[in-house]
Request: fold
Amino acid sequence: MKTLSILDMSILITGLTGFLGSHLVRELRSKYPNKDLSALILPHEREMCKEYEKYEINFIFGDVSSKASLKGCFDGIESVFHLAAIVDDLAPLSNFYKINHLGTKNLLEEFVDAGSNTFIYMSTLGIFGFNLPDYPIDEDYEVDLIPGYRESKYLGEKEVFKFAEEFGFKASVLRPPGIFGPGDPHWIPNIFKLVESGKKIPLINGDNVVYAYSYVFDIIESLMKMEELDEAKGEAFNHTSFQVTNKELFETAAKISNTEFDSYNLNYKIAMIVGLIGELQWKLVKKRPLLNRYRVKQMGKSRLVNTEKIEKKLGVSTQISFEEVLRESYKCYKKEN
Reply:
């Protein structure tokens, strides 16, 4: 297939109404004011489209889990950012595979039929599991698939590269950890509500657990460069903007919100029991728990990431401090609440 510049391409985004998608479309429209932009939207999200009309988007209504609903969705489309996914840890297990794996395959089949050129897929660092070493892992580290979100996203990756090899189009995969920034509807509110509650905060496995975070605008820069640069073809990229301890996270949040910070060490095994109780609570009364076992594993084990590949091939690196991003996010959170 011919290689086109992004300046010549029409673009389709899935997952427009999510946190990342809403930021991506703003950046694309700002950088490319005359480019044709389309978005694949779930039929029940029609009302949500109104807030995006100012970006002059062509809305296409369909569901990745229904191949029939996707017919013709890539007509005239050269480049696709596939962000849509089920990410909720408490969702039914089958939904992850129906949307994240088979839904991606459905999209790829329509993509190939339309003769589209470039497919950018949002994956996750979660494919490497939780039992990670005490050194930064690179893209070739062995995957440790956990059923649900993480396994389904990896299966989606496999479909992307299989189709790309067979049909010769340009494909790239991005693997971030948790993504945060201004407008984050979940992680930022939870962190600051916890800090501002005045309660002692449990630190699972103590002060020194290191966790990786990606700044939303670093992710957007990465996605756009993956689309633009030939060096990204056929590549998967690990990403992280910051690697900080859980204690540093809460200390910084307390400093920004002018609150006192106090903590205690929560034993990992006890935390897992609390997480299990939280899951049972969800099943019985549908009350969303503060902790489940996945979150305990996530926050109780260090995750160190080697970002040399994305820095070298795409020239992507973070130009802002963790505190600056958290402060910017806090201002947005307070404004919206």
About this structure: The radius of gyration is 20 Å. The longest strand covers residues 170-175. Residues 1-7 have pLDDT under 50 and may be disordered.
